[in-house]
């Protein structure tokens, strides 16, 4: 069965400039995330949520997955070893679920601590919940990785060298990965909306005009315990209770 229409001709990219640029971007992303990660780990003054570390680790794995042919020294070969190609294709189609789910757990973790910062203990006090949030993205990723590896090993003809990385020439892996990412991404929208409501309400209590306030995704992700301190200070000055927002 021919999975590729005759009108489509797929050839590995031989442009070294394109390949070098692609690998440079992937490696710079991985190195940058590692630097940020280890800076937080070894700094006594930097405080981050546990899910923030898995978030950084997931994106590091993503960058390294796209660079597998470079690490094996086969990125300029028209036909890399089939085992390497199968491994990279499986990694590339499974790793989006890891990055998406780790992002979702980070948002949920941050939202909980901010939303219930004064009425309930932080989520870190429940070790089982934290462990589940840390392990769930990686377990899901491993399951999909094993499934895609099995597909590639069983039918190696489905794997094609795109030049920059290896891919599956079948739509099913792409559909599975894309569907999960879409569902996860849309799940983050109400959480980010709740963040906007919380911080807008906090600014309102301070008597700040928020008609033109904007909240970027980076600010929402870069959660610090300072928000809880600000809200606690406002609660002490305000007769209203902050049991819930």
TrEMBL record:
Keywords: Membrane, Transmembrane, Transmembrane helix. It comes from the Eukaryota. The chain crosses the membrane at residues 21-44, 50-72, 84-109, 129-150. This is Uncharacterized protein. It comes from Lentinula aciculospora. The lineage of its organism: Eukaryota, Fungi, Dikarya, Basidiomycota, Agaricomycotina.
